[in-house]
Amino acid sequence: MEQPLVLEVRRGAETFELAAVPVTLRPYLTAPPSAAELEDVLGRLGAQPWEVCRLGEPVAAELGLADWPRDEASRERWIDAMAAHPELIQRPILLLDDGTAVVGRTPEALSQAVATATRVTEPPLP
Predict the structure, then answer these.
(1) Rounded to an integer, what distance in angstroms lies between the CA atom of residue 94 and that of residue 69?
(2) What is the radius of gyration, based on Cα positions, of the chain?
């Protein structure tokens, strides 16, 4: 049986492909983002690290993430954990050309991302 991750990423890529929006997939497990890249993505999402952290992963239990504080003082700790253990990062996260980002787990989120991407890439009307 195919892993849910693969299905989610494939759905996102197919949605963008059908809309003729170019997409680049990053194999985040073999090329994990740095803490600085995660900071950038969180800023683009307008989210805190604990909001895009997969607490159901075995490593989350090993680290005791469920009990970590969710405050500004703990933000760097969360980001460092996600950089060290990229399986904790919610996916897929779509980085859009307009500078925003979307967690593309639902069809609605994917539709929003495609609509934003096509607005950005369409030439202006004469």
Answers:
(1) 27
(2) 16
Chain center to CA of 102: 7
Distance, CA of 12 to chain centre: 11
- The backbone torsions φ and ψ at residue 64, rounded to the nearest 5 degrees and listed phi first, read 75, 30
Identify residue 9 by its one-letter amino acid code.
V
CA–CA separation, 45 vs 43, rounded Å?
A: 5
pLDDT in tens, 29-65: 888 999 999 999 999 999 999 999 999 999 999 999 9
Q: Strand locations in the chain, DSSP E?
A: 93-95, 101-103
Of 43, 45, 122, 120, the closest CA to residue 90 belongs to: 45
Q: Do residues 104 and 92 touch, judged by C-beta distance below 8 A?
A: yes
Global pTM value: 0.77
